[in-house]
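Deliverable D5.2: sample structural annotation.
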Amino acid sequence: MSTVYDCSEPQERADGLAAAASSVRAGRLVVVPTDTVYGIGADAFDSTAVHSLLQAKGRGSDMPVGVLVGSWSTVDGLVLSVPTHARTLVEAFWPGDLSIVLPHAPSLAWDLGQTRGTVMLRMPLHPVALELLREVGPMAVSSANRSGQPAAGTAQQARDQLGDSVAVYLDGGESGDPVPSTIVDLTGDDPIVLREGAVTVADVSDALGVEVRTAR
């Protein structure tokens, strides 16, 4: 049985964050508000929990899950190295709606799907999400919807699709326009925008001082 917590009420928000943290540590799934759309999340280092996340969404490991972090410094422990372009984008757009793809540290014991040795990272600009991430550490997070269905802009929309597969729903109100994050691939010599979302290609190019191309 899942529980919904109204994060507009201070005590309920505190109770909800405590329940969500406990659930994540126990390998269960939670739904959190972000600055783009609602996300369904699990402990990034619990492969069973990540598999449950994929099952809840109805998708396979061929569509790997990204990772949300609660601070800039967390990135250093998750990736092989942090190139200059990555640091520039982090300083320009984090917390915010830009995701970066980098080779992950080979020592990490996680299974986020068929990532081919990479990880997609983002620091969201939402106080509830950030508070949870700073409590439990990096979380594997995907949009809180069944695969092929509309992204959830409210906790109720997420619950309508995911039901009791999620232990805790943190209701942070409407997310606004359900625009996904922009994804920038930094695994090669030149940055490539894999998906243009809330941050435009021009914004990325301006921040880096180079013309950035998009994936074909």
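Annotation notes: The chain has one domain: 3-178. The longest strand covers residues 98-103.
The annotation will be released with the project's public dataset once the embargo ends.
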